[in-house]
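In this supplementary section we document a worked example of the pipeline. Step one takes a protein sequence of length 154 as its only input; no multiple sequence alignment statistics are reported here. Step two produces a three-dimensional model, which step three serialises into structure tokens for compact storage. The input and output of this example are shown verbatim.
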Amino acid sequence: MSEPFGKNIKHQTFIAAPPEKVYDIIASARGWDSFFTSGMELEAKPGGKMVWRWKNWGPNFYTTDAEAKVVRAERPTVFAFEWYPVGKDNPTTVEFQLESKHGGTIVRLTESGYPDTPQAREMILECAAGWGEALALLKFYIELGTVYTQPGTD
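The serialised model returned by step three reads:
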């Protein structure tokens, strides 16, 4: 395992919905599949298995999957998992903190644990952009019912 990089991914957004609704979407495979993944598996309890799946996703139509393990599942305030964007020897932790505020929910996402390697520095940039996209899609889905439309599917 490499030395830590010392930098985290951090995003936050406001969603005009109660924390329970936001939590129920981010803590379920069906929820994620509604706006971001295709065929995800998720057992929302500490130690529970997660498998992220994307099929023909985005403008480049990539297909991939990623395994993860739930580390915290405290409805409606915290959902966290560990996954391996830089390889099996270097897990990172993604934590969603949900705070009831302003008549809705402030969602704070932090991903920590990246090692200080060239591959990890490249991956932290990719994941930072990806988590920003995921939170925007989550917000649009919950507030407006908007679901991402894959190019060329109309």
